[in-house]
Write a structure and sequence with these properties.
It holds the Pfam family Pirin. Belongs to the pirin family. InterPro entries: Pirin, Pirin_N_dom, Quercetinase_C, RmlC-like_jellyroll, RmlC_Cupin_sf. It comes from Flavobacterium luminosum. The chain is 0% helix and 55% strand. By secondary structure, the chain is mainly beta. It has two domains: 126 residues, Jelly Rolls, CATH 2.60.120.10; 97 residues, Jelly Rolls (Sandwich), CATH 2.60.120. The protein has a seven-stranded mixed β-sheet, with no helix packed on it. A hairpin with a 4-residue loop joins strand 7 and strand 8. The protein starts with a strand and ends with a strand.
């Protein structure tokens, strides 16, 4: 029998730092909720808005797979591996922090905000050599279907990470139904509605709602509004 958990958008943790407005699906920084620690190996799902010219100063990470998905604006990245890049909507950025990295992320523009999703997964290998990658995807390939943006495989579509996880994004017209088949037994999927609304196995989800589903091989999703954009994060359920 499948198991599910619903996280409505308004129940997320919220931090307002002036230049940064962040919503936390799971416990993060000053937001601590013992019932919201993680979904399987999915540890952090932050929905961040950064003011023009502002950002996160240089800070460290280790032994975490960190994925950034920009939704609007341009985010400038610098790190201790020598990378200086800009990511924008349609891009996906990944860092394997491994033995340790330092990085900063800034809003490159002085006249518009940056919105992006910051996602952390526990890795399946510890103390790996740190690495950085980013790709630009053809967003036309997610029209009324799910486009793979991340996997465990170096030669697969999207970026790769040290974890048996698969991410997909789809953008759907109203009333379009899609089925998702899980890639690996024992995994679960965390569904996050970026915009619009959708039904997953008859559970209605609105914008920025999250819905976890596990102990199932497949499930159906139906868009309930035009331009409904959905992120699926398939992850192992055991740490």
């Amino acid at each position: 029998m499948e198991n599910t958990i619903l996280h409505k958008a308004h129940t997320r943790g919220h931090a307002n730092h002036g230049w940064l407005k962040s919503y936390h699906t799971f416990s993060f920084a000053n937001y601590h909720n013992p019932e919201r620690m993680h979904f399987g190996v999915l540890r952090v799902l932050n929905d961040d808005t950064v003011d023009p010219g502002m950002g996160f100063g240089t800070h460290p990470h280790d032994n975490m797979e960190i994925i950034s998905i920009p939704l609007e604006g341009d985010l400038e990245h610098k790190d201790s591996m020598g990378n200086t890049t800009v990511i924008k909507s349609g891009d996906v950025q990944v860092m394997s922090a491994g033995t340790g990295i330092f990085h900063s992320e800034y809003n490159k523009n002085k006249d518009q905000r940056v919105k992006f999703l910051q996602i952390w997964l526990y890795p399946n290998k510890r103390n790996v050599q740190p690495r950085y990658d980013q790709i630009t995807l053809n967003v036309a390939e997610r029209k009324n279907k799910f486009q793979q943006i991340l996997s465990p495989n170096t030669d697969d579509e999207g970026v790769w990470i040290h974890q048996d996880a698969w991410f997909h994004i789809g953008k759907f017209d109203n009333e379009v139904t899609s089925q998702y088949q899980l890639k690996k037994k024992g995994n679960g999927v965390y569904v996050f509605v970026i915009s619009g609304s959708a039904s997953v196995e008859n559970q209605l989800l609105e914008t920025r709602d999250g819905f976890g589903i596990w102990d199932t091989d497949a499930f159906t999703i139906t868009a309930n509004a035009e331009n409904t954009e959905i992120l699926l994060m398939e992850v192992p359920m055991t740490l």
